[in-house]
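Is this the right way to post structure tokens for a design question? Let me know if I should format differently. Anyway, here goes:
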């Protein structure tokens, strides 16, 4: 079988049936990763020796009749979670000691039998929707001059380039959904607390969650189910649910709001016409599937934006203080951390206190609608170096021009799923997001699977330039 082109579900089945060994599968993944590194640069750490040892153990367990959902399957994780024996640099310069314990999400991956082949690249502390910086640019498999997005750009590039069938990222302002949209992937931002962030009780004051990236809805749902669950120390612990069984389930006729208006954000840049057209085309597909779709917008309001900044910037300050040498950080990171320290007292407490009120106000929108359909980004993927060497203010302008749509659901803590929505005339991926109320992952997944069944986005693949070009990035 052509293992690397298979879905996560198919890979797990092939390993369980003995059609391929884990050592063979993991070796193929590692070889593809290492061949791509000089150009694609998706990984920060490649665990060849450790992964092959873990693959051999998976084969031993298979031979002994043991089963697990992902036993022996190669998987990647973002470099913001801890793996025992590996550093967690989170895009930052400096000498990081090896982690002495697994993060809870990594523990759950191991319990499911997955073999973690490496840790993927991230921008510094996950702040930007571009994956570059200390460890070089990660490039988009669809166009080497474009970014795959961020901050989970390494994970999205790895999946889009078929180095692994699925990977974990994290989403604090769209950092799973944005790279998914720019690389033709499904990306799930789950309900806050659905996946544990332990050893942090919460991440970035509650706005950041961990989520899966994959080529198909079933793959993303499987990975989400495998890693979902709480640690006793988690601050947010939603009631357990499963999402894989929603794939293929008819959700009935739903009321869907098509929302193209940007949330409160200071940018005059318009929505790209090709993305607007893709949104209307997807609305038409949803109507053909039996859903009611009307144009309407949630009442976001200025307070939502004011809630986001103290939480995100105070989170940057907390992370900067953990670094072995904060002086090595990007000047923009140090400036953001300075602002975060100023906001970490009364402004942060006020932001957290206002969250229930904001949730109730926007939640009333769901008295009339089941789902919101909106752009994931305002533009196709920009050039890989679009924020290199510019000021903090200019960086913020670039970010808000390209990515104004995703951050409100991080404040709210509710689930959202990026679904591929075609390609631009120049061949760049477009994504749209399905946004739900609290703990509606199964509903969103069922609709995403309906769309995938019609649109067949997983059949579109980029030309593998990263296997043909040998010069460094």
């Amino acid at each position: 079988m052509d293992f690397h082109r298979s879905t996560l579900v198919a890979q797990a089945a092939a390993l369980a049936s003995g059609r391929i060994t884990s050592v063979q599968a993991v070796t193929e993944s590692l070889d593809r990763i290492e061949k791509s590194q000089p150009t694609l640069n998706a990984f920060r750490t490649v665990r060849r020796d450790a992964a092959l040892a873990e693959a051999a153990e998976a084969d031993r367990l298979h031979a002994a009749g043991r089963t697990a959902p992902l036993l022996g399957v190669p998987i990647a994780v973002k470099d913001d979670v801890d793996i025992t024996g590996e550093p967690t640099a989170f895009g930052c310069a400096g000498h990081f000691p090896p982690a002495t314990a697994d993060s809870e999400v990594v523990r759950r991956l191991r319990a499911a039998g997955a073999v973690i082949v490496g840790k993927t690249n991230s921008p510094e502390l996950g702040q930007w929707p571009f994956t570059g910086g200390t460890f070089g640019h990660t490039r988009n498999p669809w166009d080497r001059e474009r970014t795959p997005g961020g901050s989970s750009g390494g994970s999205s590039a790895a999946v889009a380039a078929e180095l692994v069938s699925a990977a974990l990222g994290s989403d604090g302002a769209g950092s799973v959904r944005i790279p998914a949209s720019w690389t033709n992937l499904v990306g799930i931002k789950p309900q806050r607390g659905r996946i544990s962030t332990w050893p942090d009780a919460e991440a970035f004051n509650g706005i950041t969650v961990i989520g899966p990236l994959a080529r198909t809805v079933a793959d993303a749902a499987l990975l989400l189910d495998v890693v979902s669950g709480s640690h006793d120390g988690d601050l947010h612990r939603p009631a357990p649910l499963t999402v894989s069984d929603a794939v293929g389930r008819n959700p009935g006729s739903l009321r869907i709001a098509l929302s193209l208006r940007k949330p409160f954000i200071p940018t005059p840049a318009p929505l790209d016409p090709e993305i607007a057209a893709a949104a209307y085309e997807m609305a038409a597909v949803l109507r053909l599937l039996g859903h009611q779709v009307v144009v309407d917008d949630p009442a976001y309001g200025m307070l939502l934006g004011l809630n986001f900044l103290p939480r995100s910037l105070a989170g940057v300050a907390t992370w900067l203080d953990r670094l072995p040498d904060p002086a090595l950080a990007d000047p923009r990171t140090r400036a953001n951390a300075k602002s975060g320290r100023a906001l970490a007292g009364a402004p942060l407490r006020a932001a957290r206190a206002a969250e229930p009120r904001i949730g109730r106000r926007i939640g009333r929108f769901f008295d009339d609608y089941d789902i919101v359909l909106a752009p994931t980004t305002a533009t196709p993927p920009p050039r890989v170096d679009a924020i290199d060497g510019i000021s903090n203010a200019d960086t913020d302008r670039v970010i808000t021009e390209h990515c104004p749509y995703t951050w409100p659901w991080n404040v709210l803590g509710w689930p959202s799923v990026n679904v591929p929505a075609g390609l631009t005339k120049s061949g760049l991926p477009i994504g749209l997001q399905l946004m739900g109320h609290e703990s509606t992952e199964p509903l969103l997944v069922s609709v995403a699977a309906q769309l995938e069944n019609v649109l067949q986005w997983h059949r579109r693949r980029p030309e593998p330039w990263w296997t043909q070009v040998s010069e460094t990035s």
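Format looks fine. Someone answered above. Worth noting: The chain has a mean pLDDT of 96. The longest strand covers residues 416-423.
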